[in-house]
């Protein structure tokens, strides 16, 4: 176990020798090293002033050294050198993250790094941003300047779990099973896959509680990418049904361990069984706004009070039965209007269908369209015509939560990837939501949060919107649970602490693989993608690994970067590698 501690003045000579060995590792000649020696020397009297720390293993051997120099708001990473025999073992990463942490405590806003050109790839992978200017490399010995923006964990993230670690309960299927909706997957197979997102229910988990077994290599890689300390994993607890919380309670020793640690329990969503596990009273009707018609009525009440000029509400008509829905659809088709058909409940767009007049005619009429949809009650809703292609995002969302005291916390806005009513992923981060939408989205989302708090709801929520062609937002539903965008927000908050502020994070729900992958090959693929994205200055995190073993294999992924170009490039690398899997494992292809 390697740990970081303050350097001692008596170590100055030994640390100088370590620095010179580390510099020599890159093949510099004796003359160059002699010229560098005065600058790299550590004097006993400056160990404290330069805030020098060392990385030390369990045997007391010093493996690396780093310094944080200067005064807020601007400081410099003066030294970061690793013993050559320890290079590639994570020592440099540990020291760099420690420097960022201490910089935050000191109030540093900008951290300057003048890096040896051989170390430029390391700092790029750590999230530091290259700076254009005279310190850029022009030959093999010219330093490369980087900068990072140290930042503390976001305030909303501290409020979410009290600033500490949490136990994550992946009760996705259990949450869905509360709603007797024909649009939901009765087998809950997909829900059990999405339970893997429990790894990201807060920025820093202490334990994951999962219904199905997950690959060990997956949790190890995610932990490295997100800088977690040890995380306990309790998986394979509810393979036969959706009742994860009851399955935990059926194991009294495990239930006592999870609930007795003094850590918050964070579920995907509130359920009666979770209330029994967590010792939290179940409030009848607290999830009533999961209903799309109830949410629509809530939106209408908020808008009736005024104060939201950038928000419009599409008309919605509950259909008493299938024939009533067919009559409404036929009438709208005759008027040349497109229509959205919705189930009362759905997940990721399940139960939501956009129907154009051409589609109705091609199907042979409104009744023929309805025969192809899931059974159960339907809502008929006005279709909001969006902006022209290339003129801005169509689908946006607001995320927030209501804490146990009833206070509403804003997390932020995101842009979603939605195709034909089905959610595919989302992107969060600075500048993602267009400027015209920021204020109306935040104001209306906060208003919904206040209404939810007043109704007794406690927990995460989001409000989904579609943009129209006139620069307005139309709210379409609320989700009283964690979501794909919420996962991206959690990862962004964690990476900002580890790598500096300003991360863009994209979650892609489903990236199709060219072949089913055994566990060892899945680990190899993900490790390679992590390295490839790091070379771009981006981060790759496998979000849902268990879909890789399905007959039609897929992978849920997260990619993150400080700029849009690197983010898009990282996603392209991931998708290309996923498609190419079949060529590498020809005997395993579908």
Share in helix: 25-40%
Helical stretch tally:
19
Strand order of the largest sheet: 20-19-16-17-18-21-23-22
Number of β-strand runs:
23
Structural overview:
With 590 residues, this protein is an alpha+beta fold. The strands form four sheets. Strands 20-19-16-17-18-21-23-22 form an eight-stranded antiparallel sheet, with helices on both faces. Strands 1-2-3-4-5-7-6 form a seven-stranded mixed sheet. Strand 4 (74-82), helix 3 (91-106) and strand 5 (110-115) form a beta-alpha-beta unit. Helix 8 (216-225) packs parallel to helix 18 (519-535) and helix 18 packs antiparallel against helix 19 (564-584). The protein is elongated and about 85 Å long. The protein starts with a strand and ends in a 6-residue tail after the last helix. Mean pLDDT is 92; it is low at 133-138 and 586-590.
Search tags:
elongated, 23% strand, eight-stranded antiparallel beta sheet, 35% helix, seven-stranded mixed beta sheet
Q: In a few lines, what is going on in this structure?
A:
By secondary structure, the protein is α+β, with helices and mostly antiparallel strands.
List the helices and strands and how they pair.
Layout: E1 3-6, H1 12-24, H2 30-40, E2 52-56, E3 62-69, E4 74-82, H3 91-106, E5 110-115, H4 120-125, E6 129-130, E7 144-148, H5 155-161, E8 166-169, H6 172-176, H7 189-194, E9 205-209, H8 216-225, E10 232-234, H9 244-249, H10 252-259, E11 265-267, H11 272-278, H12 292-304, E12 316-319, H13 322-334, E13 339-342, E14 352-355, H14 357-363, H15 366-371, E15 378-382, E16 395-402, E17 408-419, E18 422-428, H16 435-455, E19 459-467, E20 473-479, H17 484-499, E21 504-512, H18 519-535, E22 539-544, E23 554-561, H19 564-584
Parallel strand pairs: 4-5, 8-9, 8-11, 9-10
Antiparallel strand pairs: 1-2, 2-3, 3-4, 5-7, 6-7, 12-15, 13-14, 13-15, 16-17, 16-19, 17-18, 18-21, 19-20, 21-23, 22-23
């Amino acid at each position: 176990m390697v740990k970081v501690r303050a350097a001692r003045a008596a170590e100055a000579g030994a640390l100088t020798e370590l620095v010179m060995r580390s510099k020599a590792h890159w093949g510099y000649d004796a003359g160059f090293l002699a010229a560098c020696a005065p600058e790299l020397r550590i004097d006993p009297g400056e160990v404290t002033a330069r805030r020098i720390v060392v990385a030390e293993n369990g045997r007391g051997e010093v493996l690396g050294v780093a310094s944080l120099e200067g005064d807020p708001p601007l400081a410099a990473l003066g030294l970061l050198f690793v013993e050559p025999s320890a290079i590639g073992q994570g020592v440099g990463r540990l020291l760099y993250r420690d420097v960022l942490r201490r910089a935050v405590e000191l109030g540093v806003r900008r951290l300057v790094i003048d890096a040896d050109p051989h170390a430029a790839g390391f700092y790029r992978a750590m999230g530091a941003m290259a700076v254009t200017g005279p310190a850029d490399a022009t030959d093999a010995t010219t330093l490369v300047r980087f900068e990072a923006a140290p930042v503390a964990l976001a305030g909303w993230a501290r409020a979410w779990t009290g600033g500490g670690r949490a136990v994550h309960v992946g009760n996705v299927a259990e949450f869905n099973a509360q709603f007797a909706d024909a649009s939901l997957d009765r087998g809950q197979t997909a829900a059990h896959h999405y339970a893997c997102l429990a790894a990201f229910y807060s920025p820093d988990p202490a334990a994951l509680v999962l219904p199905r077994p997950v690959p060990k290599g997956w949790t190890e890689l995610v932990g490295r990418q997100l800088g977690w300390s040890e995380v306990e994993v309790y998986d394979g607890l509810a393979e036969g049904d959706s009742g994860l919380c009851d399955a935990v309670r059926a194991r009294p020793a495990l239930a006592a361990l999870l609930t007795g640690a003094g850590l918050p329990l964070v579920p995907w969503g509130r359920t009666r069984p979770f209330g029994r596990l967590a010792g939290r009273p179940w409030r009848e009707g607290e999830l009533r706004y999961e209903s799309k018609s109830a949410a629509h009525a809530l939106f209408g009440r908020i808008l009736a009070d005024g104060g939201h000029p950038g928000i419009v509400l599409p008309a919605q008509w509950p259909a008493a039965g299938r024939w009533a829905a067919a009559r409404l659809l036929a009438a709208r088709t005759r008027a040349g209007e497109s229509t959205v058909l919705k189930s009362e409940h759905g997940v990721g767009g399940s139960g939501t269908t956009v129907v154009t007049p051409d589609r109705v005619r091609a199907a042979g009429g409104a009744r023929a369209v309805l025969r192809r949809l899931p059974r159960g009650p339907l809502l008929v809703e006005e279709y909001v015509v969006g902006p022209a292609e290339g003129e801005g995002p169509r689908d946006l969302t607001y995320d927030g939560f209501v804490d146990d005291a009833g206070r509403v916390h804003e997390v932020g806005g995101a842009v979603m990837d939605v195709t034909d009513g089905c959610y595919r992923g989302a992107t969060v981060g600075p500048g993602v939501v267009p400027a015209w939408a920021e204020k109306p989205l935040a104001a209306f989302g906060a208003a919904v949060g206040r209404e939810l708090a007043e109704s007794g709801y406690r927990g995460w929520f989001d409000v989904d919107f579609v943009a129209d062609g006139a620069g307005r937002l139309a709210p379409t539903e609320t989700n009283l649970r964690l979501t794909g965008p919420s996962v991206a927000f959690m990862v962004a908050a964690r990476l900002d602490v580890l790598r500096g502020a300003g991360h863009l994070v994209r979650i892609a729900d489903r990236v199709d693989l060219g072949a089913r992958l055994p566990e060892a090959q899945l680990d190899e693929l993900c490790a390679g993608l992590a390295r490839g994205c790091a070379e771009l200055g981006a981060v790759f995190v496998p979000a849902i690994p268990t879909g890789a073993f399905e007959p039609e294999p897929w992978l849920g992924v997260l990619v993150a970067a400080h700029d849009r170009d690197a983010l898009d490039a990282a996603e392209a690398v991931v998708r290309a590698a996923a498609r190419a899997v079949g060529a590498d494992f020809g005997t395993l292809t579908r």
